[in-house]
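Predicting structure from sequence has reshaped protein science. With that in mind, we have picked out one protein's residues alongside their backbone shape tokens:
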Amino acid sequence: MLITPELSAEELKTFDKDNNYGLEHALWANDPRNRKNISLNNILQTDMLHPDGSVGYFEGLQTLKSLKGTAAGSFHYPIEGLTEPKIKELWWSVERGYPGAIKNLQSVAGKKSPAQADAVRILDAVKAATSKRQDDLVGAPATMETYEAIEAFLTASEGLDTKKALARLKELKAAKELKDELKARDIYQQCQQLLASPKPDSIKSGKENMATLAKKFPSTVYGQKAASIK
């Protein structure tokens, strides 16, 4: 995952292509808040996301070879015996949750071709995992964590049967215990847009509104996030 503070994800993809860096499999992102304080005097920081979800800092630039001893994680959709490059690429796009990947998989699985059998195997694994994940989320307590997990699930599962998750999200939107949480998130997101602006007045307004948010909704998830912004 490659992140910069000044260019959008789409701009970074173009930059990569124009300069032939060969990073087409990377996930590109933009961080306008520049949490890592990247500058011309500090142009690169490297972290590693471990299978348990923790993040570790690299002392210097380590090669992939040096990471072979790192504990392995697991796949969302483990499929044995995939050999064809195109079907492996298709599986990997679904595994990584690329936009439109599941719809592409469904298309391949629905047409007679040498790749159809493997595509059906992958699709069956995706459906089974999605069904279980959906049941877990629908049964989870009414918290902001659950709400956002369902949002992420719906985005990642586009094209599959997610009726139960949609219904649960609708319930949570109307839940009294999340009223302040959702209101705080809306304000937080508006403040983030102000902080991302190149205009000093907008940035100032964003910080002031964050401070107000932290005082008005101190017990909410986003009220607490706002309190950490200086």
